[in-house]
């Protein structure tokens, strides 16, 4: 899932439920504003609010809002790309760790580091600029805070190969990162599945662990993310329709040297990965899943977003119904309704078939930790939960990379040195690179 902000809903409808939350949540904050303004006619606007809510959930946002104001940039002389930057204070920009500032409509990217000063009177925060990868930061006045740290594997220091994975309606580009030192785990690939509104560079935060384990990394794209072919209805299925693209990535791995895979899913990528686990004919080749800030129960996420943005309860409930019902297709644009109950893994905890490690922050303001904790409590045999503090949505690595890596390394070591799961025979032809 991505993050953007919905402040101007009166002038412009919801454009996307994105993966880097803005000052409050994402664009949903504008729902609270319009709801208050129209309180006297609440009953009349409820169908409209529900319709906007439903469309937002399933509609990709090609241009996430750049809602972080840039007030000053002081480059360090003699050191290209280093310096200090003064930004508007948001719930994200004051949190410790490394992040990306995306600006100039996505054409510019800078890596931002530690906080050096906070001015509550001016409502600004000053942070270190560690690197400017592209764009002219001195000319920008606003940007978007993002959880990825490196735009491509090159900036992260990894040699990689571009590959294309055959999916419905075309080819989905991916990055293949070979381990520097092969190990006994080199036949198990780590396939990362990014969140809604994000791209495959989100998975680079897992590659340090993959390298230490000697595991190849495959960072994939999937329908509607701006890199892979769009779905025919150009709508998100919240995991219910995206999973065949990840199944195609598994098949590619198996046809190119892998004997098994581990899926690494972020946010909605976690929902996608769980669907692959349960529905794919290649499920038995999956050794386990590492899920970061995952959507375990979409109904819970939608209730949370409706509540914090002061949507009338009935409007939020009606919006969810529009996504689920065949009657809502004319409003949402979905080719088929989404069965949200099929995406509720707390209720379906007995259907979990693979070991799962969940890394989730107590302060995730977009996808609450509650369902992750409930799933771990209901299926202790297969589901492990590591709780983080302070991190916002899917920023667990950013806030505490050492703890993130340690938890993932320990879990993978136990997983991969244990007994192998049964294997299926492949009947599909070898895919071309």
Can you characterise this structure?
It is built from twelve helices and 14 strands. The chain has helices spanning 29-37, 42-58, 153-156, 207-213, 243-254, 268-279, 298-308, 313-324, 329-332, 370-378, 396-399, 401-416; strands at 68-75, 83-88, 99-103, 108-119, 124-134, 142-146, 161-167, 170-177, 188-193, 217-220, 260-266, 286-292, 356-361, 383-388. Strands 7-8-10-9-11-12-13-14 form an eight-stranded mixed β-sheet, with helices on both faces. β3 (99-103) and β4 form a beta hairpin. α4 (207-213) packs across α12 (401-416), α5 crosses α6 and α7 runs antiparallel to α8 (313-324).
Set out the fold topology.
Elements (H helix, E strand, L loop, with lengths): L28 H9 L4 H17 L9 E8 L7 E6 L10 E5 L4 E12 L4 E11 L7 E5 L6 H4 L4 E7 L2 E8 L10 E6 L13 H7 L3 E4 L22 H12 L5 E7 L1 H12 L6 E7 L5 H11 L4 H12 L4 H4 L23 E6 L8 H9 L4 E6 L7 H4 L1 H16 L17
Parallel strand pairs: 9-10, 9-11, 11-12, 12-13, 13-14
Antiparallel strand pairs: 1-2, 1-6, 2-5, 3-4, 3-6, 4-5, 7-8, 8-10
Sum up the structure in keywords.
8-stranded mixed beta sheet; Rossmann fold; 27% helix; alpha/beta; 433 residues; disordered C terminus
